[in-house]
Amino acid sequence: MGSLLSGVEKEIITENNTTIIKFIDNRKNQEIGHINYSLCPPADNNDIEIIEEDEMNISSEIKKKIIEVMKKKEKRKIHINFIKIEDKYKDLGLSYFILKQFIENLNECRIGDFYITLSDDTDKNEDESSYWEKFGAVIYTNDDEAIIYDTDSFIKYIDKKYEEIIISKLDCPLPCKKRKAKNIQNGGKNSQYIMTKKGKRKIHVGKRGGKYYIMNKKKIYIK
User: Fold this and answer.
1) Among residues 3, 13, 11, 31, which one has the least CA distance to residue 223?
2) What is the pLDDT, as a whole number, of residue 196?
């Protein structure tokens, strides 16, 4: 897993209000997956009326919190159109990696105050939460329209699952895992830089394809 993520290249495509973030496995020159989302206008009265008159028996307390979030003009509405993991990369927990990169991209765009809407058409068994409900999504229509209004809890859940699934699969002891994970998040080979204890270092490629950075005038190869 560590070698996979450290060899990931991120490609961001933005057109009008829609952004697609693609993730490419440089080792095989294959797409791992992507997320597609849109920046939307603030909720209007119709959105709020749908919540007020929901058919899904949302508790009055949750309904109140959702409406409060929707009414805040400073909050950005972000609609996740879809997230996809290619078949060869499924069952590795990479959706948490992609969602973490999605949040980081919002931060880089200075979007910190937002809520999320999406269509939750993921399969679920009776009395069990759907994929998105585990992230805090509340379904409020029979068409499976959902909202994630508590984005702090949403981000904490992503961080928790990222720690449990992604970092745990890095092939080294815990201090090394955390260091590698930080490198992946803060640049890694995605942007051809790596974070070291002495700061950011540029990644070079040797004649045989090996990647390394320079520290104290020595080549440090990246495993």
Assistant:
1) 3
2) 66
